[in-house]
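REQUEST ID: PR-0412
SUBMITTED BY: lab tech R.K.
PRIORITY: routine
TASK: structure prediction, single protein chain
INPUT:
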Amino acid sequence: MDIELLYFDGCPNWHLTHERLTEALNATGSPGQAVRLRPVDTDATAQALRFPGSPTIRIDGQDPFPAPGETYGPTCRLYTTRDGLAGAPTVDQLVQVLTHGP
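STATUS: complete
OUTPUT:
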């Protein structure tokens, strides 16, 4: 499994997402799984990578949390969680996509 965490340094939520992703990998029995951190710092890079905002997780090249009508750019991203909108997916959401797909 190839896991990337794309982020815009101006958005602090990528740190929390990285922590939660590590926790989810541990919970699913994959504590040694590498997560490639990929900074996205320009609009041109964001467009080229189809980056909908920070943080974005890609598993085997796919975003497990796609949003309809996404726009691309170095901005912060929101996720829908059971508690409302948040700057990072929950550990439970991450465990779900790691074990069962999006």
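NOTES: Residues 46 and 90 are 24 Å apart (CA to CA).
REVIEWED BY: pending
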